[in-house]
Design brief:
- By secondary structure, the chain is mostly helical.
- It has helices at 2-11, 21-47, 56-75, 81-86, 92-96, 98-122, 130-150, 156-177.
- 30% of the residues are buried.
Length: 180
Amino acid sequence: MLGWTLGAIYSVPPIRTKRNALAAGLTIATVRGFLLNFGVYYAVKDAIGAPFRWSPKVSFIARFMTAFATVIAVTKDLPDVEGDRAYNISTFATRVGVPKIAKGASAVLLLNYVHAILTGVLAKEATFNMIPMVGGHVALATMLLVRFRELVPEDLKSIKTYYKHIWDLFYLEYVLYTLI
């Protein structure tokens, strides 16, 4: 219910948190990151009568995807930056600029991957499957760096491709999650 409520206040007047970069980012990160992963997992366990038991894997994915969803919230206006400028719509992307946002978003995602790798390396034995946890995140981090290097911030098609690849990495993380 909380996810539905946050989704509604994101888009529906009079609140419309999407009008404010910080409020929009917090809404997106909370719903897509924390609630979707941690909240749904434990709600389902409760619904089927399973006892609560802390899961390092669920904790990891909730934290990882919350950071990732925050990046998505910051980069969501990149594909529309030309139209937003043409119609004098002030967004985080039009104020800060594509190069800075892309560089910052890529840095945050890279740090997120480094943290995932270190989580796998430093965790107690058998907490995670080491090859997908470490190797998979090394591969995804490499993909991120390759896509960032291909970005031409002045080219709308390149910006859209970069943004699409952020979403590709987001969904690939869920594939990887099934293996860790």
